[in-house]
Amino acid sequence: MNALSGRTIVITRSADQAATTSELVSSFEAIPVIVPLIEIVDEPEGLARLSSIDLSDVDWIVATSPNGAERVEPLLTAGALRPLLAAVGSTTAAVWPRCDLVAETQSARGLLEVFPPGPGRIVVVQALDAEPTLVSGLRDKGWDAVAISPYRTVSLSPSPERRRAALAADAVMFASGSAARAWVEAFGLHTPPVVVAIGEQTAEAAEQAGLKISAISADHSVHGMLVTLSRYFADVN
Is 6 left (phi over 0), alpha (psi -120 to 50) or beta? Predict the structure, then answer.
């Protein structure tokens, strides 16, 4: 029997991502509990900076999330060989018609491990509140790396009904550190019995916020988190 069958799982992603995530949860015969805790909003200044860059003077563009990749995509011309494109994760890479580098370990640290040394110019497209890990690491490898932030993450406050449903669920999934921090803002340190994080960096952010992580997905995807949850429940039964 599927270990997730009939389990209620909280989805904390933004509303525009919740539908796809809900379908994946249902494919595991689990019951999705949609409680969006974050919203992605445009940063006009960052968008203006991004649209004004001279691509002929850029060797690489790096996107740290699908949100960043979507805002880069209009700048790319069909068949253009420059700049090269790198993504932190396969979901981010899938936004573009091509991607030249995706780390096997889908995180900023994983990308740094496989990124070639400089010199050259890199534009890192990330959220306004993103950690400096990637930009600092690229500079340490000899690149002239600059961060542009065309979007930011805003925390949301769930309704009383969604709060009750979330706390009564069997598990909660965190796909980002910002979602974990938003959870603590909304619920304090109260969580469902099982908490899964999409990777080490998200787990670290959640633990720094005071949450206890039950399991960490090595595959940095929603599908990976669900597989990890399934294994967790199978092991404890």
Answer: left
Q: Is the Cβ–Cβ distance between 87 and 99 less than 8 Å? A: yes
Q: Could you read off the pLDDT of 54-76 as tens digits, one per residue? A: 988 999 999 998 899 999 999 88
Which residue shows structure tokens 């969006």?
36
Query: Do 32 and 22 form a contact (C-beta atoms < 8 A)?
Result: yes
pTM, 2 dp: 0.85
Give how far the C-alpha of residue 150 lies from the chain's centroid of Cα atoms, to the nearest Å. Answer: 16
Sign of CA dihedral 128, 133, 136, 142: negative
Taking the domain 41-152, which CATH number applies? 3.40.50.10090
Question: What pLDDT score was predicted for residue 105?
Answer: 77
Average pLDDT over residues 102-130: 91
Contact residues for 92 (Cβ-Cβ < 8 A; gap 6+):
63, 64, 65, 66, 68, 69, 102
Nearest 5°: the CA angle 47, 51, 55 is 135
Distances (CA, A) of 183 to 27, 58, 97, 166, 211: 25, 38, 34, 10, 9
CATH 3.40.50.10090 domain locations along the chain: 8-37+156-236, 41-152
Mean pLDDT of 160-167: 96
Name which CATH class applies to 8-37+156-236.
alpha beta
